[in-house]
Amino acid sequence: MPLKQIIDTCFDTEVGANGLDRAEFDTVLKRTEPGLVWLREAYDTGALPLLALPGRDDDLPEITEAAAWLADGATDVLVLGTGGSSLGGQALAQVAGWRLPVLGDLSGRPRLHFLDNLDPLSLQSGLAALPLETTRVIAISKSGSTGETLMQAMAVISAFEERGLADRIGAHMLGLSEPLVSGRLNKLRKLLEPYGIRFLDHDPGVGGRFAALTNVGLIPAAIRGLDIAAVRRGAQRVLQPVLDHAAAAEVPAAVGAALSVAFAERRLPIDVMFAYGDRLERFTRWWVQLWSESLGKQGRGMTPVAAIGPVDQHSQLQLYLDGPVDKLFTVITTECADAGPRIDAALAAEAGQPEFAGRTVGDLVASQQRATVETLARNGRPVRVINAGTIDAETIGALMMQFMLETIIAAHLLGVDAFDQPAVEEGKVLARTYLEEM
Ligand SMILES: O=P(O)(O)OC[C@H]1O[C@](O)(CO)[C@@H](O)[C@@H]1O
């Protein structure tokens, strides 16, 4: 089912004075047109390889083979890498059942562990607990120089050696990094290749946070059994209107970018993504990096906040309904009516919840989604809705492409480069200095 975007509750007619008036919105929407032209040109010239990915299938056999190689006979697969080298894979794998409460890893496939946050205690206890004889590792870093990933890779190698498994390192690990460029040191390759570890190439033209549809995101997804061709099909469906020269109003990503920037210009500089369903939790985190690193530059940018429903109704909604009016909400809903356990009428009566009788858990969540959107609007909070239908491979591909396009178009509107992240370097240099001083 295609994504369905509903924006009525962003306008003053629905939410009162905090909403945009149509003319104001149309002016910002018109400003997205150069961004759309730029995207089409980038597609035609191949300047942005990300845009060619949805239509490609030539690389899928290599991705499928790598996933099968990692999973073959494995009880556990460790994914080393951080930021864009991890979050896309996490978002996709979660759609296929990874990291869900209780049942997440009971699929007969290897357990997946994404070691994206460097934490000394987690790493130590994790490596001690894992059956390394049957553990495979994929180390992902576009640059090959991210300290966290390098340190994790070194710790893993040492753990294999300490368990007397030094001779298996080459057969248990895979690397994924940019191809070697003469004169530039790739530390990850330098570290791992001497062990005979095979490397796949990270597409040098696709930045980490935009790499979910490359081998970076698709290998972990395929390990979990997600249909990776369908992920790309979903992405293509969202890209197509841009390539077909659709008017900005017919390109949901242009509409989304225009809304966000229009509200930011009105001093609503916070974007809250409120996604209903456990399977979208990591997706919201992936989006937070995409939106933050791509747009937060030169004093500009909108602050992303991630929430999932219904649980965050019980932690954040009070602020959203009654706190400062400084946010645009994007509520991602799913078709969940009729899904999940059906509630026994006698139990419902016994508990004093007669309205539960005969209803499914999905019926309640469907009602909650609707209620959240309406309550936000009634309290004068601008809210757009994206009805994602069923959360499957195609849907997550579509959502990822929608938000990547939205990010690129928003960057055009803000006048910033979506593809760099110069400011984060400063802290990395300082951390290295402090480490040397220790
Ligand atoms: O894939 P790499 O090069 O290891 O980078 C990991 C992450 O670190 C950053 O460069 C920020 O430090 C992100 O942009 C990137 O996704």
UniProtKB/TrEMBL annotation:
<dbReference type="GO" id="GO:0006096">
    <property type="term" value="P:glycolytic process"/>
</dbReference>
<keyword id="KW-0413">Isomerase</keyword>
<dbReference type="Pfam" id="PF00342">
    <property type="entry name" value="PGI"/>
</dbReference>
<comment type="pathway">
    <text>Carbohydrate degradation; glycolysis; D-glyceraldehyde 3-phosphate and glycerone phosphate from D-glucose: step 2/4.</text>
</comment>
<dbReference type="InterPro" id="IPR046348">
    <property type="entry name" value="SIS_dom_sf"/>
</dbReference>
<dbReference type="GO" id="GO:0051156">
    <property type="term" value="P:glucose 6-phosphate metabolic process"/>
</dbReference>
<dbReference type="InterPro" id="IPR001672">
    <property type="entry name" value="G6P_Isomerase"/>
</dbReference>
<protein>
    <recommendedName>
        <fullName>Glucose-6-phosphate isomerase</fullName>
        <ecNumber>5.3.1.9</ecNumber>
    </recommendedName>
</protein>
<dbReference type="GO" id="GO:0005829">
    <property type="term" value="C:cytosol"/>
</dbReference>
<keyword id="KW-0324">Glycolysis</keyword>
<keyword id="KW-0312">Gluconeogenesis</keyword>
<dbReference type="GO" id="GO:0097367">
    <property type="term" value="F:carbohydrate derivative binding"/>
</dbReference>
<dbReference type="InterPro" id="IPR018189">
    <property type="entry name" value="Phosphoglucose_isomerase_CS"/>
</dbReference>
<comment type="similarity">
    <text>Belongs to the GPI family.</text>
</comment>
<dbReference type="GO" id="GO:0004347">
    <property type="term" value="F:glucose-6-phosphate isomerase activity"/>
</dbReference>
<dbReference type="GO" id="GO:0006094">
    <property type="term" value="P:gluconeogenesis"/>
</dbReference>
<dbReference type="GO" id="GO:0048029">
    <property type="term" value="F:monosaccharide binding"/>
</dbReference>
